[in-house]
Hints:
By secondary structure, this protein is α/β, with parallel strands linked by helices. The chain has 17 helices and ten strands. The chain has helices at 12-23, 39-49, 59-69, 80-88, 106-114, 125-141, 150-158, 184-187, 192-195, 205-213, 215-228, 266-274, 288-291, 306-315, 319-336, 342-354, 364-386; strands at residues 2-7, 28-34, 53-55, 95-98, 118-121, 145-147, 167-174, 235-239, 245-251, 256-260. α2 (39-49) crosses α3, α6 packs parallel to α11 and α11 packs parallel to α14 (306-315). The protein starts with a strand and ends with a helix. Magnesium ion (MG) is lined by residues 149-151, 220.
Amino acid sequence: MKRIAILGSTGSIGQSALAVVDAHPDRLRVIGLAAGENVERFASQVMQYRPRVASMASAGHVARLRQALGASDVALPAAGRDGLVAVASHPDVDIVLCATSGTEALEAVLAAIDAGKTIALANKEVLVMAGGVVTAAARRKGVSLLPVDSEHNAIHQCLHAGHRGDLRRIVLTASGGPFRGRSASQLERVTAAEALQHPTWRMGRKITIDSATLMNKGLEVIEARWLFDLAPSAIDVVVHPQSVVHSMVEWADGSVIAQLGVTDMRLPIQYAFSYPERWTSPLPSLDLVAAGRLEFAAPDTRAFPCLDLAYRALRAPDSAAVVLNAANEVAVPLFLEGRLSFPGIARVIQAAMDAHAPVAVETLDHVREIDRRARESARTIARGLESTV
Ligand code: MG
């Protein structure tokens, strides 16, 4: 029996993770759950899975949860970041699935590593912001970081096909998002509603916009650098609109090993829970005949400059990636609110990076400080652009 904690249980990944638990009641037991602000959905999850510990974004949300639960023996020790830490480091937990969006769970992931938990990582911002700090801690503690992001999960699987020293490069696939094929000038006028229509994956709002700008792939390039300890030149991206090939690795002899599967996050989540075993799954078999033609193309970095900005951050000292991520987290909500144009997202990020002199990052406090200043800078830059919408 593997005992799990899920950070972000009411989100898209969190709900898929609970579906994996439902499919394997004899192998998985929910010990901890944490969610943000959706009291209603979270209360029903807590009543169904009866975790030992739970938490929400604020003391107010925890109070409403307590009211919704009535008489219950679930511990609600804290809220916000402290609550995430309490759930992630509960002594009975073996595996922590980090499926929160953004950077709220950074402390919780480090606390879980410190407590020797296996980390199933669905959140890419944690590694983009603090990849050096997190991977150093995991190495020190001998803790596994198992990627749930479908591309990295694919790479993790493909890497079993050879010896690490014989790896030539990895190739992350990108769907290209809903605006694939559009020119830079056509993108000036696209709306948030259009951007939220992802062609192949159903996901949360932030990551769906990141997919439309290709920033999601940029963040994944940085994520891959940390997960697999790779040089930027050993990480390539190819656009593959069907999302059937989830990613691939190329070996020294030119052999390419790919992982394919249905586009359902239950697959990589279950892999992370079951690893190193493989369990049967209720998912349908991949039907390659029905999938039809599989296409591959180079990314259009002129129309979608965010991918190049991520490579730029990767080649610079670590703080550049913190600024890239912070500026993106400021710009995306402004676009969703209609206050910033779609290309404005990349403009805010580029200007925030131009204004920052990258430095090495050693501690979480330093990460938080760079992040805070970068957000201020990005907000100022965005205000200057808002009037042009
Ligand atoms: Mg992905």
